[in-house]
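Narrative summary of target 7.
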Amino acid sequence: MSFENYFKYLYKENKPRTKTNSAIVSIHYKNKAQAKSFYSDDLRDRFEKLDRFGLLRKKIYPNDTFFKSPEPPPPKFAK
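Modeled conformation, tokenized:
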């Protein structure tokens, strides 16, 4: 898994842009006035693409805690 493979996946799975959807990922090329945006067509598709990105990010940056969710607090038991 790599960024290159992730973008190949996004390119293959890209959906047409509509008035109601927004880009899930946008790439802006440095020193150029170009950008490439990738879209999803429903909530499930969006979550699948974000989940794949999360797996890629964990593989490349295993010790990064920026996006780590905090553990839920332990349940309180009434006495």
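DSSP finds two helices and two strands in the chain.
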